[in-house]
Amino acid sequence: MTPYHQSTLDAGVTDITVYNKMVLPTSYGDLKAEYDRLINDVAIWDVAAERQVQISGPDAAACVQYLTTRDLSKQKEGQGYYVAMCDHEGHILNDPVLMKLSGGRYWFSIADNDMLLWCKAVARERGYDVTVIEPDVSPLAVQGPKAGDLIADLFGEHTRDIKFFWFIETELDGIPLVLCRSGWSKQGGFELFLQDGSRGDELWAKVMAAGEKYNIGPGAPNHVERVESALLSWGGDNDRDSNPFEVGMARYVHTDIDSDYVGKKALQEILDNGGPKRLLCGLVVDSDVADAWPLPERTPVRVDGEIVGMLSAVVHSHRLGKTIGLAQINRELVEKGDQVVDIDRRKGASTATITAIPFI
Ligand code: THG
């Protein structure tokens, strides 16, 4: 359960999934209306399943750098960074948002994997003087073009100056929270990191009341919008053996920094040996019925019968009027551009064209 569970039931949640071993609502029964609300107005999402791993203590900065492939030397207090965490072979274990809080604390806001265990083990084995815990923190996302107005009404005009991925530690009528300009959509918005799990329904009610004039409604991380925007779904778009270069995260891998980190040597070797073998890319699919696709299982992508990659998501984009997908495909094909490939379907095959991402 999440602190917003009762509110999501009252709002008529119809579909859920399990993410990070927690409930994650996925629909309130009308996916098209939920999509339109995200694109045109504002939506409220229970994303408490985006759990936090908190690292604090004298060695917190060193420990967090050791767990991350991105150069953190310029990260400021109050700033979030999108980062990759890898294992010793350079396989990506997670793609969290890393927040640098006051008092030398850090939060990894994690995707669907047991990073608390990993962080605890690495920290202890390396002898860092840190405390690694899961804090009482539950994100609530407010996403869409009117989210900024809603948040300004609730928290004040100064919130309009918060830059992307920056945050403030604040409160709402005594409810402690961290307000961050972030969220798993490209429609703009905030995440409210509630710091008192007993007050979720209260927070939900306050946001709903303030959002009424902006046509707010309940929603969930939107699969169509995230494919259009090419936001990575860790565990969906990658294999267990994918490295960050292969999932579009090359710009968050810094092998030239002085600090060591888990996977650094392996990632350098990948670069020294010519770089990644596969790349995440888009597919424009020559078939109109996304529902007919056998997903969420990954679907082979072929050329002349040979498997050249895996399709991990396919949706109908209302805005583009096309069926589009995300796939990890052999690099030489992606770099040639505009290559036509075949995709297996339950009934027969369909062709598709490799394209750049994001789509929108
Ligand atoms: N917010 C928070 N926690 C999260 C997510 C989130 N944990 C799980 C999951 N989402 C982690 N994965 C992502 C993936 C993409 C982004 C954030 C978290 C994202 N990416 C932008 C992009 O790719 O364009 C911005 C990246 C950048 O700074 O360059 O926002 O959504 N709390």
Short recap of the structure:
With 360 residues, this protein is α+β, with helices and mostly antiparallel strands. It is built from nine helices and 21 strands. Among the domains are: 5-51 and 137-226, Probable tRNA modification gtpase trme, domain 1 (Gyrase A, domain 2); 277-360, Aminomethyltransferase beta-barrel domains (Elongation Factor Tu (Ef-tu), domain 3).
What is the overall shape? globular
Q: Ions, cofactors, ligands: which are bound?
A: (6S)-5,6,7,8-tetrahydrofolate
- By CATH reckoning, the class of the domain at 5-51 and 137-226 would read Alpha Beta
C-alpha Rg (nearest Å): 21 Å
Q: Total helix count?
A: 9
Which structural class best describes the helix and strand composition? Answer: alpha+beta
**CATH homologous superfamily grouping of the domain at 5-51 and 137-226:** Probable tRNA modification gtpase trme, domain 1
Compute the separation of the termini in Å. 34 Å
